[in-house]
Amino acid sequence: MKPLSSRAASIRPSPTLSLNAQLTARRAAGEEVLNLSVGEPDFPMPGLAREYALKAIADGHNRYTDVAGIPELRERVRRKLAEDNGLEYAPGDIVVANGAKHALYNAFLALCEDGDEVVIPAPYWVTYPEQVRLTGAEPVIVPTASKLTARQLEAAVTPRTKVVVLNSPGNPTGATYTRPELDALADVVLRHDLYVVEDLIYEYFHYDDGAVPSIAALGPELKDRTVVVNGVSKSCAMTGWRIGYAAAPPEIAQLIRRLQGQATSNVSVVAQYAAIGAMDDVPWEAIKSYRDRRDVAHERLTAIDGIRCERPTGAFYLFPDVSTVLGGRTADEFCARLLAETGVGLVPGTGFGAPSHIRLSYAVDLPVLETALDRLAAFASG
Ligand SMILES: Cc1ncc(COP(=O)(O)O)c(C=O)c1O
User: Which atom of ligand 1 is nearest to the CA of 232?
Assistant: First the structure.
């Protein structure tokens, strides 16, 4: 038989999704699992989201909608971007997609092609390099302490550089770009005529004062070259509903819309109504409680001999450097043995471009978190 697509075959499976499947299977087999690998909040979805979804079903909303989403949802997103981010978009510049992941893929497809380079700061969310590769472009991984500096971006730029990816607060590091850091990056972006894909999916999980700054909000010349991606998956604990969106300059938004029109059409209409309810009923108290978990998790983790970790300002992960406790093992072996011997599930840093790190999520109950960290401490020192 003729070979299958080499481009598709070059894509690595998501390590976080496969680990989760493995942990779920262990749990189903009756084994104890303390799962700190989760990439989703553990609080319930907003009541209004349920209500709007049920009403959408009762009202008989069962047909195709506009490819880019129902007008009510795009208007709600428009208002959110204006209020939270100081970004003024027309509803036509917003495209609702099947999760932020799909919105990102649309953005890369609209911006990149064979021969282009896309700068991705490492540690990175596992999906960025694979999505970029699917477009034919080449991911250019730039190692950073946790955030890309203007100097690092400048050094990575070549005549082929098309896009830079910014994720703030970031998965896996939880680092948030400050306004001065974005100002410096914006200068490089403008000088080299780059586009920015800005992923703000963890925006509401931010533990310092003030809102998370967006590079698109620094001025019209930045907004004109940035695709802002966000959604309700994390902020409203609705990962299963698959609602994300991209906001972009009109020409890019039109292209994204065209791509989506031939690939998937609109997102589930019931989920779109649910998303409006979610955005009107954001679970702020639950989100705020994650700050305490961060503090507990960070304190206990950094008390373990040999484990170093910056205190993250956002998201719900810790991403410590564990090189001194690996003792010759890879992070993959370390995590596999930790799971086998203690039942604690963590993600090795390998898939995030940081092979001497591990990622743990504190989006779990405090007692589970504490027990898991006790076991990690005993394992690391054993
Ligand atoms: C940085 C980042 N962006 C995007 C996503 C995808 O979000 P969604 O579930 O809305 O597709 C995730 C999910 O883990 C993420 O960590």
Answer: 10
For the chain, what percent of residues have pLDDT higher than 70? 100
Q: State yes or no: pLDDT of 18 exceeds 90.
A: no
Cβ atoms of 228 and 85 closer than 8 Å? yes
CATH architecture entry for 47-280: 3-Layer(aba) Sandwich (3.40)
Domain boundaries along the sequence of the chain: 6-44+284-381, 47-280
Query: Could you count the other beta carbons within 10 Å of the beta carbon of residue 55?
Result: 14
Distance of CA 378 from the midpoint of ligand 1 (Å): 32
CB distance 157 to 194 below 8 Å: yes
Q: Are 312 and 173 in contact (CB under 8 A)?
A: yes
Pocket probe for ligand 1: among 45, 127, 319, 347, the residue whose CB has the most ligand atoms within 8 Å is 127
The predicted-structure confidence for 338-366, as pLDDT tens digits, reads as follows: 999 999 999 999 999 999 999 999 999 99
Kindly give the distance from the C-alpha atom of residue 199 to the centroid of ligand 1, in angstroms, as a whole number: 9
232: CA distance to ligand 1 center in Å? 10
Q: How far is the CA of 272 from the centre of ligand 1 (A)?
A: 17
* 337-354: b (≥16 Cβ within 10 Å) or e: ebbeebbbbbbbbbbbbb
CATH of 6-44+284-381, one of 3.90.1150.10, 1.20.120.450, 3.30.420.40, 3.20.20.140: 3.90.1150.10
Q: Compute, in angstroms, the gap from residue 235 CA to the centroid of ligand 1.
A: 11
Residues with CB under 6 A from ligand 1: 39, 99-101, 125, 167, 171, 199, 201, 231, 233, 239, 244
Ligand 1 atom 14, closest CA: 39
Work out the average pLDDT over 111-134: 97
Average pLDDT of the chain, as a whole number = 96
Other CB atoms within 10 Å distance of the CB of residue 379: 16
